[in-house]
Amino acid sequence: MGVVIVAEKCTGCKLCIASCPYAAIDMVGNVAVLNEKCTDCCACLESCNVEAIIFEGTRREREIDLSQFADVWVVAEQREAKLMRVTKELLGKGRELVEAKGERLCSVLIGSGVGHLAKELFEHGADVVHVAEAEELSSYRTGPYSKVLSELIIEHRPDVVLFGATTIGRDLAPRVANRIQTGLTADCTGLEIEADTGALLQTRPAFGGNIMATIVCPRSRPQMSTVRPGVMAMAERQAGRRGELVQKEVKLRRADLTTEIVKVIKGEKRHVNLEEAKVIVSGGRGLGGPENFKLVEELASLLGGEVGASRASVDSGWIDSSHQVGQTGKTVRPRLYIACGISGAIQHLAGMECSETIVSINKDADAPIHKIADFSIVADLHKVLPVLIEELKGVGKGSPSEG
Amino acid sequence: MRIIVPVKQVPNTTDVRIDPKTGTLIREGVESIVNPEDLNAVEEGLKLREAHGGEVIVVSMGPPQAEEALREVLAMGVDEAYLLTDKALAGADTLATAYSLSRAIRSIGEFDVVICGRQAIDGDTAQVGPQLAEFLKLPQITYVSKVDIEDGNVLAERLLEDGTEVVRAKLPALLTVTKEVNRPRYPTMGGIRAAHREKEIHSWGAEDFKAEPWRIGLDGSPTWVKKTFSPPPKAPGQALKGTPKEMGQELVRRLTEKNLI
Stretch A226-251: mean pLDDT, rounded? Predict the structure, then answer.
């Protein structure tokens, strides 16, 4: 029962060997043969052009022994050899999870010339860091990254694997989850360990944030999630904290390198990184015109923050869409979000309501934004913003303390 | 070129409201639409066909009424449509969905490119595209905002958080496109007529596309929904009082207190 190779049909093309994540297929003479590493994952079935590999039986005969899996893994995300903030957030949450499970917190670092980042991972709570370095891994590409990560997971059997829900994490995680045939939950905003079962409860918004769903992965391992940036609290840095470094040998074939990055175009004008910002000052239709964004920009700059915008002000052409916050723009979670002249349509709220502290400045007392604000000011923003700017200049606060 | 576009019929989530008394979703009166970014995928397929010749084939998995969604894209000019509809497919998570789509696409035959919408608005997972690419052993380019095809290669602009990446892959390949890629066309009167009178929707059950029964539907899904609930309400905020100047000063004081500035 399970995966079977029909020797009479096999043409010896070796395609299945390349497809197997477990190195469970050997060539014996001119025929492919399964070895003891086969887990019946069925990854090879699709690779065979002559239908020589079949699955016998109607369901998985071999139940996976869940107790063989332990530890929480955080897939570190680095861009140009800089660690992304979301990785430290995952380490913060990962620490909570391993304390509930009594296991180790591990991290995977993939890239080229990134080994020095392991220190930062240790200092943010990783007990073990697996480092995979190679020239071909210098920029993120689906093929080689998914190959290296799948191999590591198969070798070390983590119980939980977390990724940032970024354009990299959401490209990589589904590919890896498929290769090892396990479950993946997208864009989680809550993670906890269920007390009696030890299972990972993965909570995420659905239907445009109108409902929350808690997802479990009861029969396969690891339990994998991508986690929304800006939602989990960052791990505190403990200077000098050390851990165990494990070097992974990287072997890539031409078949793993199916895409090529031709060039990279950085964001136009100033670099807007709303997801990473600690302070965001956003402007909406209430500004009345593009010239009034100057007030917003000045306040943002005094607070060491970024400028955000509602869809209304972007659609009016007052500011570039890279500043847009909301369902069709960025989802942000700064420590401080100041909404100026924004009414608070549900699509905008969906993108910023997880901010730690929200300030609303809008002369319309009925504007929905006031309802979710921690501090609301019902007044003309053109009168309030200059006061704030003057006060901040007076206090001499140039930028917020490093948090 | 043979272009495959998977599409999904979804409830229009902007219409979804919460009943303030019970805190549950009000589903009544919520219209079903073609997932918006799937329309971008269809449009991109049609543009590629116009430039390079060939045909655009859509595949959808869903209940029998998903046929409406397929009629809509047929009216845009799609050549052929397949609907995978079978009770055994119900409850599928992204992996089981991607598996079923991959079996159906293999049954349809050779192709040059698969174009998916980035994500569906009901689940927002963005997982089916990459998982389908893995089942089909294709290179993938996700978050695509521009597509060029030449000499058997696809050159695509991929949107990142802080810029754009231009990525090349050899065909066949799978792309997931975002709303930035194009503006979907409206169906023409002739298109609507053809979609209802001339074009046939192939309805397939799980056996028709040779799906292994244990890999489809809820049984083939590694993830299950344990529970659903309404998002918790936030603690009430404070309205500051006074003149604009007083309120501004009070705000700076409060934020300083909270160590926010």
Answer: 93
